[in-house]
Design goal:
There is one protein chain. It contains seven helices and four strands. The protein has 163 residues and is α+β, with helices and mostly antiparallel strands. It has two domains: 60 residues, no CATH class; 72 residues, no CATH class. Strands 1, 2, 3 and 4 form a four-stranded antiparallel β-sheet that branches. A hairpin with a 4-residue loop joins strand 2 and strand 3. Helix 1 packs across helix 2, helix 2 crosses helix 3 and helix 2 packs across helix 4. The radius of gyration is 18 Å and the shape is globular. The chain starts with a helix and ends in an 8-residue tail after the last helix.
């Protein structure tokens, strides 16, 4: 099952730029599909018998292009779920974060709690019809203070093309 899921998750052989990346996606998926009670890099690394930092670096900084997967997903949604009255919906959501080292985390409006606190904000695009729904794409919001801070961007591996 892990092999089939890897082929689905990485449809373009060039999406992961290194052989190590291709190997690590297999290990990460193996851990995510496991019986582990907590599926973080440390627990998965112990399960698949690799150093924690190997998986942590892969999850956090591996260079790969997610666009082929998004294109394939959109095609599947159109083919399998598409309805004449289906719509595309956009939803901003916020996620609590401790500290300030995760990408895009300042003290900002946290809509779910109705207050200002440390959080990330993302925007999700989804397809919705009376019969089904699916997330099609997403973007993490990068607050202006983060966008202008070259050192912070470098520490968190924010690509230069992200504004």
């Amino acid at each position: 099952m892990v092999d089939r899921l890897c082929a689905f998750v990485v449809p373009d052989p060039h999406a992961l730029e290194t052989e190590a990346g291709k190997r690590n996606v297999h290990l990460d998926l193996q851990g995510l599909l496991s019986h582990l009670p907590r599926k973080n890099a440390e627990m998965i690394a112990a399960l698949v018998d690799v150093e924690r930092l190997v998986l942590q670096e892969f999850i956090g900084t591996a260079p790969w292009d997610h666009r082929p997967l998004v294109r394939m997903l959109v095609g599947q949604v159109v083919e399998r779920l598409g309805e004449p009255d289906g719509i595309i919906a956009f939803d901003p959501s916020s996620f609590p974060k401790r500290g300030t080292h995760a990408v895009g985390v300042p003290r900002q409006w946290w809509s779910h709690r109705g207050k200002v606190d440390n959080c990330q904000v993302g925007v999700f695009m989804g397809y919705v019809s009376r019969h089904d729904h699916a997330v099609l794409d997403f973007r993490l919001s990068l607050p202006e203070e983060w966008a202008r801070d070259a050192q912070r961007r470098a520490e968190c591996h924010v690509p230069p093309e992200v504004r």
